[in-house]
Amino acid sequence: MTITTPITIDDATPVSESWRRQGLLTAVAIVLILALFARDTVDIASIWWNSSTFGHCLLIPPILAWLVWQRWPDLLALVPCGWAWGLVPVAGGALGWLLGDAAGVALARHLGLVLMLQGAVIALLGPKVARALAFPIFYMIFMVPFGEELVPPLQTITAKMCMVLLDLVGIPARIEGVFITTPNGYFEVAEACSGVNFLIAMIAYGALAANLCFMNWRRRLPFMLLCVLVPILANGIRAWGTIYISELTSISFAESFDHVVYGWVFFAIVMAIVMGISWPLFDRSNDTCWFDSERLIEPMREQRYPYALPAAVVAMVAAPLLWSAAIAATGRTSMPSGISLPEVAGWQRVQLSTRYPWFPHFVGADHRLIGRYRNAAGDEVDLAILLFAYQEEGKELVGYGQGAVDPASDWAWTATAVAPSGGIAERIVAPGPVTREVVSFYRVGGTLTGSATRVKLETLKSRLIGGDQAGVAVLVSAEEGVARSARPAIDAFLTSLGPVDRFADDIAASARGG
Questions:
Q1: What is the largest CA-CA distance in the chain?
Q2: CA angle, residues 323, 43, 91, in degrees to nearest 5
Q3: What average pLDDT does the structure give for the chain?
Q4: Residues 177 and 412: beta-carbon distance below 8 Å
Q5: How would you classify the pairing of strands 179-182 and 412-417?
Q6: Which residues does the UniProt record annotate as the domain Methanolan biosynthesis EpsI (predicted)?
Q7: Which residue has the higher pLDDT, 284 or 69?
Q8: Is 91 a member of any domain?
Q9: 276 and 311 assigned to the same domain
Q10: Across-strand partners of 444?
Q11: C-alpha 73: how far from chain center
Q12: Looking at the structure, do residues 397 and 266 belong to the same domain, yes or no?
């Protein structure tokens, strides 16, 4: 443990002037970056306010201010100055934002914005001050709303934990994807039950506590591991407990119990468990300094061009906005014409299912079509066509919530299936249970694929260098019967439909009036 003594500075005036100038430049740069990227700033704040998963992010800005305030007396002993190498993270953030904007990936844009803010602080305050503020600068990363990609695997983990625990207490159960059937009911480990909100909040809390309570990395790392494992295990136990209580009492009572336990009360219990386990290992005392001032202090250096670096920061953060605006209008085509479902040889149109209607979820599509077809053998399939004139945030082929399953419907994803050439296949289930198989194809940039990553890359390419930004999604689905699979009917329909890439191109051409 290193204990430092307060440093007395005989002539504090030059340092005060340096802090006033560089501090003001840093504040102006931060405000300017937030203003230039106002759309993303508002998006991030809106996610914090409206999403229960990221409600804890509202506490991050005041926590950052508190962390700086803790270090402020010792910071005054340092001399802030411009540092050219600090422009590297600014440039990295600007590039990340541009790639995210081109590909329609909000996470990349938000991460790029925060990285630009971090870089601006480092570039304008210099390496010594940045070293003293290393943790607050790092902690800014938790302002980025990230982690929803963990929902599907966490749902699966929670469901499998429930099955193990149900088996231990002797309750017979059957699992299909995230659906669990017991003698007393039919349960879904829904997205809200995945525990992702508590896991993300616990990681953010754990990083803060690791800095405040520990000095040794050999103690910090096991503590962070606890912050990851305990919320996952606790959420699995909570989900199992709800099912178990429903077996002992009733489903309605179990639901009311879960509503009482689930929420911030549950998170407080998880926090108490983690802190209780770790309490004996805390090794930071109240009088320990946050950084070694004596090692970081240096003589005052006159900057020949004090406003060159701020100008460079502004130029770097403005560059991706200008490039995006210049390319945005290219490759976009209007689609005023209507389109209609195709006639498929050997198949005729019939009414859609009314038992559990299925509609894929593609927000922002310019055209949406869905219809059911039946052949002479009695096989029935549903064909859905989604057409985008161009893609941007909130108007994209692939993204969170986009795809074969509408999050607001009774359908839920259960498993992947054998993928067709150029596509992807998955199984979805509705209460009953009713099972469907869905094959999906995406046509963008002259490429037919079922890969979300490939769609993003093709979209990124067209929006960075210009090109046709139109996108088409073609989905074919069928319900499974008691003794028959859905796949033969889907394959038969695809054979009659012909090459999907040519079909998608014809649909796009007809919408343009071509």
A1: 96
A2: 40
A3: 85
A4: yes
A5: unpaired
A6: 313-500
A7: 69
A8: yes
A9: no
A10: 447, 471
A11: 38
A12: no
Of 439, 507, 513, 497, which is closest to residue 471 (Cα–Cα)? 507
Instruction: Judge whether 504 and 446 are in contact, CB under 8 Å.
Output: no
Measured CA to CA in angstroms, residue 495 lies from 196, 287, 341, 345, 347 at distances of 41, 75, 17, 10, 11
DSSP-assigned states of every residue in 347-380? EEEEPPPSSS----B-TT-SEEEEEEEEETT--E
Residue 341 parent element (H or E): none
Decide if 485 is inside a domain.
yes
Q: Are residues 31 and 74 in the same domain?
A: yes
In angstroms, the Cα distances linking 18 to 51, 83, 125 are 41, 14, 10
pLDDT band at 105; cut points 50, 70, 90: confident
**414 and 458 housed in the same domain:** yes
156 shares its domain with 142: no
Least confident of 97-111, 319-333, 464-478: 319-333
Q: What is the pTM of this model?
A: 0.80
Total domains, the chain: 3
Task: Report which of 187, 157, 153 is spatially closest to residue 173, judged by C-alpha positions.
Answer: 187
User: Are residues 221 and 368 located together in one domain of the fold?
Assistant: no
Is residue 46 domain-shared with residue 175, that is, in the same domain?
no
Question: For the chain, what percent of residues have pLDDT higher than 70?
Answer: 88
Q: For residue 8, what pLDDT is reported?
A: 44
Residues 27 and 153 in one domain: no
Q: How many CA atoms lie within 13 A of 492 on its CB side?
A: 19
Q: Report which secondary-structure segment, H or E, holds 232.
A: helix 217-248
Shortest CA distance to 128 belongs to which of 9, 1, 300, 13?
A: 300
List pLDDT tens digits, range 322-354.
888 777 656 555 655 667 888 999 999 999 877
Show the domain range for 353: 347-511
pLDDT reported for residue 12:
45
In a domain, 458, yes or no: yes
Question: Is residue 291 domain-resident?
Answer: no
For the segment 361-378, the average pLDDT, to the nearest whole number, is: 91
